[in-house]
Amino acid sequence: MSGARQPSFRIGELSARCGRSVHAIRWYEAQGLIPGVLRDTGGRRVYNTRHVGWLTLMERLRITGMSVAQMRHYTQLVVQGRSTLAERRRMLAEHRRAVEARIADYRRALALIDRKIGFYEEWIDSGQRPDDPIAPDKPH
Amino acid sequence: MSGARQPSFRIGELSARCGRSVHAIRWYEAQGLIPGVLRDTGGRRVYNTRHVGWLTLMERLRITGMSVAQMRHYTQLVVQGRSTLAERRRMLAEHRRAVEARIADYRRALALIDRKIGFYEEWIDSGQRPDDPIAPDKPH
DNA sequence: GCTTGACCTCGAGTGCGCTCCAGCACGTTC
DNA sequence: GAACGTGCTGGAGCGCACTCGAGGTCAAGC
C-alpha cells in the first residue's frame, strides 16, 4: 500500500458514510460488486475511504440504471487490472450513451405531459374543454 | 358520442397500434388504468383511436417512472370528471417536477462517470495511472 | 466473567410490473 | 361441422434489487 496509513473502519461506519444499509453493502459484496474487502481478526469486514469512493461510483451507476450484472462485469474488469482499461472506458462510454438516450426519452415524454398540463390549464381558465393534445381524456 | 362514427377494433389491433402486448393491455385494464372499455356481443373488448391516445399517455407516464398506483389515481380522477381538473393538473405538474429532478440526478451521475472516463483516457494515453477522480479504482 | 452492541452467515420474503399458461368461447371459412 | 384464429378469465410465475430475520460470534467495558 502507498505511504500514509489509511484510517480504517467497519461496516456500520461505511453504511453511515455512504447512506446504504449494512444489509445492502453485504449484498453488494456477495454480488461481486465490492472486491478486496479484508477482514479483521474477528472476521469483521474492514473498509477505508477508497471503499467510500468505490461505493459512490457503484451508486451512480445503479441510479442511472446500470444492472447489477453489468456492474459485476465492470468490477471484474477492474480486478483484472491494466489490461482491461480500454474495455472499462468503452463500458462507461456506452453506459453514458444509454443514459443520454433515456434523458432524451424523458424529454419527449415531458413534452406530451406539458401539452396535457396546458390542456388542463386552458380548460380550467376557459371553462370549455379544448381540443385534445393527442392523448384524449376519458377514452369512452 | 360525438358526431362521426369512430372506427373500432379489438385488442390485437390496439396491441399492434401501440406496441404493448395484449397481456399487458388486459393487465392495465385490470389495474384500473383503462376506463370505459366496452365489449362486443361476443364479450370481446372494443377500442377506438381515443384508447390509442390514452395508452400513449399512460406509457409516457410509466416510462418516466410514475407508479401504477399513481396512474390508477390519475385515471380515477379522469373518470370522476370536470370537478377534478385542478387536481389532475396538480398531479401532472408534480410528476413533471419529479422527472426533472431525476434528470438532474442523472446529470450529476454523468459528471462523475465522465470524470472516470477521462481518468481512463489519461491512463491509457500516458501509460501512468493518474490521480483518482474521487471514486478510486480497485478499493484494496 | 457478564453484558452489550456491533458484526457474522444463510436463507427466506417482498414489491413491482409485467408475462405466460391452461382451459374455454366465439365466429368465420372451407 | 371441423378447423382456425382471435379472444376470454383466473391465476401462477418471473426477474430484479433489495430487505429482513433467525441464530450465532466476537471484543470492549464494567
From TrEMBL, chains A, B:
<protein>
    <submittedName>
        <fullName>DNA-binding transcriptional MerR regulator</fullName>
    </submittedName>
</protein>
<keyword id="KW-0238">DNA-binding</keyword>
<dbReference type="GO" id="GO:0003677">
    <property type="term" value="F:DNA binding"/>
</dbReference>
<dbReference type="GO" id="GO:0003700">
    <property type="term" value="F:DNA-binding transcription factor activity"/>
</dbReference>
<dbReference type="InterPro" id="IPR000551">
    <property type="entry name" value="MerR-type_HTH_dom"/>
</dbReference>
<dbReference type="Pfam" id="PF13411">
    <property type="entry name" value="MerR_1"/>
</dbReference>
<dbReference type="InterPro" id="IPR009061">
    <property type="entry name" value="DNA-bd_dom_put_sf"/>
</dbReference>
<feature type="domain" description="HTH merR-type">
    <location>
        <begin position="8"/>
        <end position="77"/>
    </location>
</feature>
<dbReference type="InterPro" id="IPR047057">
    <property type="entry name" value="MerR_fam"/>
</dbReference>
